[in-house]
Amino acid sequence: MNLSAPTVDALRSAVLEGLLDSPKRLPSAYFYDATGSALFESICELPEYYLTRAETEILQHHAAEMARRIGSGALLVEPGCGSGEKACLLLQHLREPAGFVPIEISSSALEGAERLVRGRFPQLPVHALRADFTARSRFPPRQRRPARCSSFPAPRWAISTRRMR
After folding, report:
1. Torsion sign (Cα): 9, 11, 15, 18
2. Rounded-to-5 percentages of helix, strand, coil across the chain
């Protein structure tokens, strides 16, 4: 896991900078502890928050076709993995996946997603990465070179793949 806990100085600096800004702001990374992650999961279940339901519905109806197009030997990367439930919908259809890289800023959410995926797919290499996916991060070392790398969710669920060299 790649993101260290913020230091008191880093937190103080971020708070002061945000309070001096207009409009006032705080980096969302400071809200994603266990309580913040649980709150976000609850928000995702509200009728007003349709995005998670829409993504899940798309996967329930199209994961098999997505997996077919991704092909075998893919490394699946999920920025903002949350609970890991949506990844499982796609992973169950992938042929011989090279691994799964959940990326999450919340340690508790990442640990839960890692447990869920490892429990459902015990043979699958899982390389959990605690990081802010909007910032540059070091990718975990690969055990084997994947045939391709697929990242989801991509903007508007456009799954992008590229051949690994």
Report:
1. positive
2. 45, 15, 40
Q: How far is CA 1 from CA 18, 46, 64, 83, in A?
A: 27, 30, 30, 16
CATH number listed for the domain at residues 51-163: 3.40.50.150
How large is the C-alpha radius of gyration of the chain? 17
Alpha helices in the chain (DSSP H): 8-20, 34-44, 51-70, 85-91, 107-120
Q: Tell me, what's the pLDDT at 4? A: 53
Q: Where are the domains of the chain?
A: 51-163
Confidence of residue 156 (pLDDT cuts 50, 70, 90): very low
- Give tens-digit pLDDT for 25-52: 887 777 777 888 888 888 888 999 888 8
